[in-house]
Amino acid sequence: MCIINRLCYRALTRKTVAVITAIHNTMDLNTMPALTPLRGNYTALTVGLGLTVAILPLILRVFTKTYTLRQMKIEDYLLILSVAGLIGYSPVLVVASHTGQGIHQWNLTVKQFLKTLNLTNVLELVYCLVILPAKLSVLIQLKRILL
Fold first, then answer.
1. What domain of life does the UniProt record list for this protein's source (predicted)?
2. Roughly what angle, to the nearest 10 degrees, separates helices 74-99 and 110-146?
3. Which residue has the higher pLDDT, 2 or 130?
4. What is the pLDDT of residue 144?
5. Distance CA 103, CA 97 (A)
6. What pTM was estimated for this model as a whole?
7. CA nearest to 71, candidates 83, 81, 61, 85
8. How many whole angstroms separate alpha carbon 21 and alpha carbon 103?
9. pLDDT value at position 134?
10. Quick check: 7 pLDDT over 60?
């Protein structure tokens, strides 16, 4: 035992030292996890917050463009299309998180892994369809502002 451990053991009561020694002797540091896993799945909460952050400004923008300015432009329609795609993307993301998305591969069965791969493929395809109108909308707005 090193000197620091001896000093620490002297500061503790004999009962505490006995408990710590018993715990230390029964632990296998090679297999013991460093942290306990998170309890619950927070993907649905995160998706709900993301949809709220996306939909509320869109509603305000569409209301302002239709009632105040009375002119909707192509970028507004592209944003509506993009948020509609995001609403369709979100349930697939939640289902994927419950089937194994975000879990270490060694904690999955082969069946779960294959289902996760299929849902990941769907998510990638839908993401492309969702992000394209959003990026086009930003580019058209930048062109309108700067040119």
1. Eukaryota
2. 160
3. 130
4. 92
5. 8
6. 0.70
7. 61
8. 34
9. 95
10. no
Counting Cβ atoms within 10 Å, is residue 90 exposed (0-12), middle (13-18) or buried (19+)?
buried
Cα distance between residue 120 and residue 126, in whole Å:
10
How far lies 134's CA from each of 59, 79, 94, 141, in Å? 15, 6, 22, 11
Surface-to-core class of residue 37, CB atoms within 10 Å of its CB (0-12 exposed, 13-18 middle, 19+ buried): exposed
Cα 15 from Cα 72, distance rounded (Å): 76
Asked if residue 91 and residue 129 are part of one domain, the reply reads yes
Q: Answer positive or negative: Cα dihedral of 9, 10, 15, 18.
A: positive
In terms of domains, do 53 and 17 share one? no
CB 75 within 8 A of CB 140: yes
Q: What is the pLDDT of residues 18-63, one digit of tens each?
A: 666 666 666 666 666 666 666 667 888 999 999 999 999 999 999 9
Pair (10, 64) in one structural domain: no
User: Which tens digit of pLDDT belongs to each residue from 61-90?
Assistant: 999 999 999 999 999 999 999 999 999 999
Domain range spanning residue 64? 43-146
